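Troubleshooting log. The previous structure file for this entry was overwritten by mistake, so regenerating from the original sequence record. Sequence copied from the archived sheet and checked twice against the printout by T.R.
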Amino acid sequence: MQIRSIILYSKSGEKRVLDFRLGDLNIVTGTSQTGKSALLDIVDYCLGRDKATLPISPIFSTVAWYAVILQLPDTRILAARPAPRPGAKSVTNAMLEVGNDLGIPELSDLRINTDSAQLRQQIGRRIGIGDTRSEPAPGTLLSPLSANLGHAVLLCLQNQDEVASKRSLFHRQNESGIPESLKATIPYFLGAVPEDQAALQQQLLQAKRALRRTENDFKAAQEANQGVESRLQSLLAEARVHGLLADDSIGSSDRAAVIEALQQASSFRPTPLDADEEQRRQELLLTEESAALRRQLRSLAEERQLLNDLETQAAGYSGAVARGMSRLSALNLVPDGFPGEHSCPLCGNELAEPDPTVADMHTTLTDLRGQLDSVQTVQPRREQALREIELHATRLREQLRGLEGALSIIAEQRSQQAGLLGQAESQAYTRGRISAVLSQINTTTDGGHLQRLESDVAVAQQLVQGLEEQLDTETIDDKLTHGLSYISGKMTSHARALKLEHGDRLVRLDIKKLTVVADTLEGVTELLRIGSGKNHVGYHLVAHLALHQYFVANSRPVPRFLMLDQPTQPYYPSDMAKQRGRLEDLALDEDRTTVTRLFKLMHQVVNELAPDFQMIVSDHADLPHDWYQASVRYNWRNGERLIPPTWLEEQPTP
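Regenerated output below.
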């Protein structure tokens, strides 16, 4: 799959079409801010990236849709995406169309008919990416990962922030989750992982589960077949203890007789216990009567307490009255023949004025005597009432004791019934154990059954072994090592051609760390520790060219293009040098030679792989060599740029 065209649609319906040569080196050169770097972002976006990374500027705000036409050996694919709305951070809408003679559609023909995920899946299938889901290692929290077009595109793009980086080698490697995706999918793209890995892994998982079940059945059958006699005798004794068997004459050596007896015991059914409804009704009535008697006793106790309280109060009152009468009698102030208030109480003579005090004292004494007589009159009746209450309480207590005795008898009967129920539960438990053991003996004592289980285990083991061989880690590692060795040879050759630092040593790709390493005299040196941005650019180019040489040679399902943005940026430090892009603008002769070598290597590799590999390079460089100028597809200088300035003038008024 290569890029045939990149198309931009203005909101007014204008089209900007960039055509690229297939199987060739396509150079887009020009000054800064002409839109060269946006080409890579447009391709990344049209191939399914959700995050919007396209430039935000007035000129780009005129774009309504972005599209690419991809060329496959037997067909063409149009992948188009609507421009992100202002403020949008991601877009999932997309359009996908396939056709042998597919042309460039008009803006009015563009429509949303899929999403980014389906777009990646459909294009990935057409270039040969199969069901490659890889299961994570046991114990990890990672989810299964399926290789798709998005993972393949990571190996085909290098923007200007990445091509000269010493910390990351691949596109978007610094983003969260991307390193893990690269490590999981690169072995597949190198051909070390089987095409049908997901299906094989699922088959292996099911085969292992079937093997465990068969092994468990076989082991259970072997264990059940061992010590059968001892288990039978144990069950026979247990059946007798719980009353399931009454015959003690069964011989312990007669296995058939023991099994027959146990079968009878397992079918034993105890006599059901009928519930005594009359007993339960009687118990309920006795309980209610007992409660009523207790309530009556509490009422009598309250009445007795009330009478006792009244007696205590009467005794206190009588004592007070007696003390008052005693004081009046002791003073002898009021004799029994007292003539009245007109006579002197001492001498009996007539008083000139009547003395009411004496009369009052006499009246008081009379009242006290009357009250004392009243209290003494009531006391016999109160004592009679107390005696009646006590007699009644005694009768109630006798009745309550009778009721409690009857309830105790009923409780004892219930306890006996509970014991019978417990025995029935024990019998049921024993019958269950006997049935379980007899069912195992009926199968495991059959020698043919054991042989069949053993044969099933052998077949399941062979199936698991065969699948494991196809997914053998060592086999995958061997294939991966072979592929990396090929890539290492190409990288070393390219590094020497570019005369990179440590390029005279073995240079290789470390996919575990996702970087380039060189075997030096001091040991293994990673790209991070190799100085100079010029070396970083060189090693990025070396690694990606070697990868695509391997992809083409082994027909791997990776797009057949590589896009580089500003690979010569370390060599053109000044704005003037970037605008002109000429070799004479470089200060050092060594830099001029190195820049020429970079493009010469690109040109050489593309020609070697033609027509199966395409490169699109956006750069400031404008070299004078004939082979270079023949590769220049667009030169955006003197007002030429990606988006025509007239689009701003033609933009519809909101």
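Residues 290 and 401 are 9 Å apart (CA to CA). Archived copy saved in two places this time.
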